[in-house]
């Protein structure tokens, strides 16, 4: 409680922040990512194989003159070894260390607004998703939404490998 100039008491816990999240599916799970982490969402297009690229790169696409490596986010997030085919899904384009990277997902459901007060910590017992990618768990009326930090999907070493792709 906060005392105002008029002497009345007000509850200061109502100062919550609402953020927008892109909701998408990878595997059989729904995820959300803060919209400010993304550049754009594009339809899956034909990938070009990149010889000698790291195994987490599915291929590359030409996005308005810029070569963008595509990561299979389902394979990256899930501990099981599932993978989308090269022509399935959508691509969420993010900027990691000033490099554009596409994250291939099953489908994008849309954009939601979520109050930060409705985002809790993920339990330490997560088993199907690698926990270092998880920012929290959003509590929606009808379901829970795993909130990801797409910048942490790749390790610093993997980002370096992507940077090397640009210079070759």
TrEMBL record:
- Name of a matching Pfam family: CheW
Q: Which InterPro entries match?
A: CheW, CheW-like_dom_sf, CheW-lke_dom
What GO cellular component term, any one, is given? Answer: cytosol
Alphabetical GO biological process terms: chemotaxis; signal transduction
| Record domain CheW-like: where | 18-159
Its protein name is Purine-binding chemotaxis protein CheW
Q: Which species?
A: Halarsenatibacter silvermanii
């Amino acid at each position: 409680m906060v005392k105002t100039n008029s002497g009345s008491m007000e509850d200061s816990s109502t100062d919550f922040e609402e953020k927008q999240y892109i909701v998408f599916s990878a595997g059989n799970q729904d995820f959300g990512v803060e919209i400010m982490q993304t550049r754009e969402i594009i339809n899956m297009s034909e990938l070009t194989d990149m010889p000698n690229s790291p195994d987490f790169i599915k291929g590359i696409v030409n996005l308005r003159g810029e070569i963008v490596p595509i990561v299979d986010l389902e394979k990256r997030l899930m501990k099981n070894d599932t993978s989308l085919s090269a022509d399935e899904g959508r691509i969420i384009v993010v900027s990691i260390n000033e490099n554009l990277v596409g994250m291939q997902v099953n489908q994008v459901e849309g954009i939601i607004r979520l109050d930060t007060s409705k985002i809790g910590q993920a339990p330490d017992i997560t088993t199907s998703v690698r926990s270092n990618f998880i920012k929290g768990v959003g509590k929606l009326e009808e379901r829970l939404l795993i909130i990801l930090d797409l910048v942490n999907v790749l390790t610093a070493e993997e980002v370096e490998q992507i940077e090397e792709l640009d210079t070759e």
